[in-house]
Amino acid sequence: MKFLLVFDFDHTIIDDNSDTWIVKCAPEKKLPNELRNSYRPGHWTDYMGRVFAYLGGRGVREDEMRRTMTAVPFTPGMVDLLDFIGKNKEFFDCIIISDSNTVFIDWILKTADFHKVFDEVFTNPAAFTSTGCLTVQNFHTHHCAKCPKNLCKRKVLEEFLDKKLEQGASYTQIVYIGDGGNDLCPVTFLKKGDTAMPRQGYTLEKKISQLSQDLSPVECSVLVWSSGVEIMSYLKLLLKE
Q1: What residues bind substrate, as annotated (predicted)?
Q2: In what order do the strands lie in the sheet with 92-101?
Q3: CA-to-CA distance for 176 and 6, rounded, in angstroms?
Q4: Which of 8, 93, 183, 194 is catalytic?
């Protein structure tokens, strides 16, 4: 019996948003207003497709994007936490569910040598075209009214757990570590023995506390964190039990 650790990526593993970080590659490190204003709520991936097309059209190539992306800082304590999980993989299965993309996450994890810590990464598929332009697609389709149209993290988590059950594996506890509004949907799916770990001061923490005020609290335990070291302390407690 293992523990399942579910991580968001932006503002959770890394201390920034990978999609906005890449704008550092743009001329004068900013996007034209008309491109910035083209974003529609719930359609972030379509918007990023236009951003990547703009960067490609300005001659920004893969090596420059990779250099920029691998300079993004990890969240405080996250390197220690991922080292700890990597040394205790017999107790932990570890996945990422993120609204970033496969290329950015792959670069960052491989450069820091953390790709072996994670069993699977669920995120929007991205690839470079023959002309060197980065393209991105929606992760899947779903019918959840609460989530952006390209990704319902709850659906991803449910399907992952169903697949594991078919293979005869279930988990002692799920620990969900995230920060954003789109992490609330999977957190409401967690059960009594599970734990949600929202990052202190970020949207997920505020939304969970709002649910409690509305007298419809989440079923799982909630532990707020501000450093990966606090998450590591909790995981060490789980191993002692």
Answers
A1: 19, 99
A2: 120-124, 92-101, 2-7, 171-178, 195-198, 221-222
A3: 5
A4: 8
Q: Residue 217 corresponds to which amino acid? A: P
Please state the residue numbers annotated as binding site for Mg(2+): 8, 10, 179
Q: Is residue 69 part of a domain?
A: no
Checking if the pLDDT of 96 tops 90, the result is yes
Q: Which residues are annotated as a binding site for substrate?
A: 19, 99
Give the Å distances, CA to CA, from 85 to 91, 173, 194, 228, 239.
9, 15, 18, 11, 11
**What is the chain's length?**
241
Check which CATH number belongs to the domain holding 109 and give it: 3.40.50.1000
Annotation: binding site = 8, 10, 19, 99, 179
User: Quick count: other Cβ atoms within 10 Å of Cβ 116?
Assistant: 12
Neighbouring C-beta atoms of residue 109, cutoff 10 Å: 21
Give percent above pLDDT 90 in the chain: 87
Report which of residues 203 and 215 the model is more confident about: 203
Q: Is residue 64 part of a domain?
A: no
Q: Round to whole Å and give the CA distance between 84 and 67.
A: 27
- Per-residue pLDDT, 41: 87
Determine which one of 10, 93, 183, 194 is catalytic.
10
pLDDT at 150: 87
Is residue 171 situated within a structural domain? yes
Q: Is 15 a catalytic residue?
A: no
Residue 56 falls within a domain, yes or no? no
The model's pLDDT over 5-36, given as tens digits with 9 standing for 90+, comes to 999 999 999 999 999 999 999 999 999 999 99
Quote the domain boundaries for residue 159.
2-15+74-123+150-239
pTM over 0.85: yes
